[in-house]
UniProtKB/TrEMBL annotation:
The chain holds residues 1 to 163 of 466 of the full protein. GTPase that plays an essential role in the late steps of ribosome biogenesis. GTP 1 binds at residues 9-16, 56-60, 119-122. This is GTPase Der. Residues 3-163 form the EngA-type G domain. The lineage of its organism: Bacteria, Pseudomonadati, Pseudomonadota, Betaproteobacteria, Nitrosomonadales.
Length: 163
């Protein structure tokens, strides 16, 4: 079984943009792997000689009757259940938000390994764009740009170190 990286984060932080970048290689789509749930996007990627499976949780839409917070909680729990490693994305331009704090708290409770990834960091000073995210208590925030590709491979190499 390939190591599974799950992309988690509030809407609009860039999960799908990162997913697309991470699965750009040929034969990336794994839509018909047996046993996989339909409401999440699965893809394959490779960094160096190491292949991985990546999951984008963005296919789930908030359910009106339950509200977005409930839906985010459910989405996060389900996705994290399948994860070898969670990439928790936040938006370095928007800064730290209440939704980020809620997700961070959920992730800490799961006991899973989490990498805190600060997206949209292109053209920004690394120390400055990551500074406020240290308080989430999920380790050193790693700046990337999903749109431009900056630092993406380096972060995936870190993620796959133990595999
Ligand atoms: P998701 O809701 O978390 O899946 O986020 P999307 O991948 O749909 O991206 C939300 C918005 O952020 C889109 O307009 C993207 O073009 C933009 N975006 C994603 N990654 C980056 C990035 O690295 N830099 C900048 N400036 N914008 C980004
Ligand atoms: Mg998305």
């Amino acid at each position: 079984m390939l190591p599974t990286l799950v992309l988690v984060g509030r809407p609009n932080v860039g999960k799908s943009t990162l997913f697309n970048r991470l699965t750009r290689s040929r034969d990336a789509l794994v839509a018909d792997l047996p046993g996989l749930t339909r409401d999440r996007h699965y893809g394959r990627g490779r960094v160096g000689s190491k292949p991985y499976l990546v999951v984008d949780t963005g296919g789930l839409e908030p359910v009106a009757k339950d509200g977005i917070l409930h839906e985010m909680a459910r989405q996060t729990r389900q996705a994290v259940d399948e994860a070898d490693l969670v990439l928790f994305l936040v938006d370095g331009r928007a800064g730290l938000t209440p939704q980020d704090r809620i997700i961070a708290q959920q992730l800490r409770k799961t006991g899973r390994t989490v990498l805190l990834v600060v997206n949209k960091a292109e053209g920004m000073q690394q120390a400055r764009v990551t500074a406020e995210f240290h308080e989430l208590g999920l380790g050193t925030p790693l700046p990337i740009s999903s749109a431009h590709g900056d630092n993406v491979e380096e972060v995936i190499e870190i993620a796959l170190e133990e595999f």
